[in-house]
Amino acid sequence: MKLGRKFKAAYSLRILFGIPVVFAASFAFLPASFAQTAPQPHSKKSQPLSSATAKPDFSGVWFVDEYHRNLLPNEDPPFQPWAEALFKQRQAASENRGPDSGPDPTERCIPPGIPRTMSQPFPWEIVQARDRVIMIFEYQSLVRQIYMDGRGHPKDLESTYMGHAIGKYEGDALVIDTVGFNDKTWLDPMGLPHSDALHVTERIRRVDHNTLVDEYTIDDPKAYTKPWTAKRTFELKPDWQIQEYVCSENNNVK
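The structure corresponding to this sequence follows.
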């Protein structure tokens, strides 16, 4: 699904949750606050890779090129038996959902987790600092920090929705290693499950000035028989700004 710059908040909610148009219409009074074309007076184009820093520039506001509800549109991942059964159960529950609620945890304002947060039909911004890369998501106003100072993952890591991320630059790629997830999120809106053993590795590359590609490797031996990969492409939106998003239960966005 190709999404244009001036998508409406109600439309975004409808494609996220499959909410009927008549329900989405109740949000029509909202201002167009979801990352529209608010000018950025200080916006600037990415600079060439500096020989002194040897760090690629990923800064800017990004938006998913095509929105898909499936992380793997053309195939199923290599499920463990319990994970496949849970996936089918979630699909059945989604098909028989009520008009105002469904089984998807994000409908109760649960964060989508990684990698799903990045593929929501809302923009997100990359800010590169000296010792970390920061991702600021419009959806649910989430923030993800990737530590770039050479540290490892803590041994006494507390499980969270977004996990604990460390990263490094490899040539023109940003490589992100994330662990420490809880098991309360779905990998995609179709209901792909995962366990608390989820390990996500990403390779983010800027293939041209306006295009970012993120390649995910999903490694979760409790839920899948072997690691598997997926990919998403994002477009640079130089004139967009991240706007406020407040989520409350039952899909009320204020």
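The chain has four helices and eleven strands.
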